[in-house]
């Protein structure tokens, strides 16, 4: 299934089908979908029909739209990264080159990875409050199509101009941290994957199969402060003057005022909300060289 409205989807569809068949993949059905809203129902129908592998061509938004359908269903996902950021593919070392991605599906291995939960909504990369939600509001399909990888910086500038600092209260149901109160915030992120936002690191040792969430709290500040904080996030240098980091399995978040939550690029909920880990919830095809944190020798 290829999201034909993904940045390179329409051109990639025919080539992907030809490549996969030439690699010996017995494709039962192929779908060039021009309406991304049909992806979840199409994937659900394929799973119900008994197919043993779902191959999805699209970006992070396409992946996130189908994980609610695939979570705990036992059917592996093969990914052809065709989006703008492709952070999920970057986390799993899946090549963005179409030919190499096809070879990964044909010759790779299946591993179990975690999903994040925002209430009852699954996500693969990150949920965020504050600037991240503002970026999601500013990130239109037209902007992504015309600016490509520059869409994130452009949308971020737009979001910064509109942003108002907020407060957040964090409590940890498992008692692994004391309650946290933070004021004057730019952003609060709860990451499941290693990368988000076009290559930012959740933490230098973050993993998508480590049974934990990486939380980063970023204070609002001057333009210089924001540039320094963005540099710190890009290289995973957390617990700096501008960014605080916590690692946990569950966290309850409330904000003042209540704010929308960006879940993998879509505004799907609002605070207050609980975030948690769904352990080994998704099967996915990765390169054979990818190291499984729960079984590093596999």
Automatic annotation (TrEMBL):
GO terms for biological process: phospholipid biosynthetic process. Residues 1-122 form the DAGKc domain. It holds the Pfam family YegS_C. Its cofactor is Mg(2+). The keyword Lipid biosynthesis applies. GO terms for molecular function: ATP binding; ATP-dependent diacylglycerol kinase activity; metal ion binding. Keywords: ATP-binding, Kinase, Lipid biosynthesis, Lipid metabolism, Magnesium, Metal-binding, Nucleotide-binding, Phospholipid biosynthesis, Phospholipid metabolism, Transferase. InterPro entries: ATP-NAD_kinase_N, Diacylglycerol/lipid_kinase, Diacylglycerol_kinase_cat_dom, Lipid_Phosphate_FormReg, NAD/diacylglycerol_kinase_sf, YegS/DAGK_C. GO terms for cellular component: plasma membrane. PROSITE patterns: DAGK (PS50146). NCBIfam families: YegS/Rv2252/BmrU family lipid kinase. Belongs to the diacylglycerol/lipid kinase family. This is Lipid kinase, YegS/Rv2252/BmrU family. It comes from Saccharopolyspora shandongensis.
């Amino acid at each position: 299934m290829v999201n034909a409205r993904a940045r390179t989807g329409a051109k990639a569809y025919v080539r992907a089908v030809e490549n996969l068949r030439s690699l010996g993949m017995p494709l039962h059905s192929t779908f060039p979908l021009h309406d991304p809203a049909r992806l979840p129902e199409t994937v659900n129908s394929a799973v119900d029909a008994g197919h043993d592998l779902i191959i999805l061509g699209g970006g992070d938004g396409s992946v996130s739209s189908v994980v609610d359908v695939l979570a705990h269903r036992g059917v592996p996902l093969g990914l052809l990264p065709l989006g703008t950021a492709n952070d999920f593919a970057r986390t799993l070392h899946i090549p963005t080159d179409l030919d190499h991605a096809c070879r990964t599906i044909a010759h790779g291995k299946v591993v179990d990875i975690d999903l994040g939960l925002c209430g009852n909504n699954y996500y693969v990369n990150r949920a965020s409050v504050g600037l991240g939600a503002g970026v999601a509001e500013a990130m239109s399909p037209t902007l992504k199509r015309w600016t490509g990888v520059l869409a994130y910086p452009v949308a971020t500038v737009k979001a910064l101009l509109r942003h108002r600092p907020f407060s957040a209260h964090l409590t940890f149901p498992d008692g692994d941290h004391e309650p946290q109160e933070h004021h004057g915030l730019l952003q609060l992120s709860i990451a499941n994957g290693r990368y988000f936002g076009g290559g930012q690191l959740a933490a230098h040792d973050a993993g998508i199969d480590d049974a934990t969430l990486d939380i980063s709290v970023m204070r609002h500040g001057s333009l210089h402060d924001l540039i320094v904080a963005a540099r710190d996030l890009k290289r995973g240098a957390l617990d700096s003057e501008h960014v605080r980091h916590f690692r946990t399995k569950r966290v309850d978040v409330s904000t003042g005022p209540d704010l929308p939550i960006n879940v993998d690029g879509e505004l799907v909920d609002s605070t207050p909300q609980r975030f948690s880990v769904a352990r080994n919830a998704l099967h996915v095809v990765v390169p054979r060289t990818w190291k499984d944190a729960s079984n590093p020798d596999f």
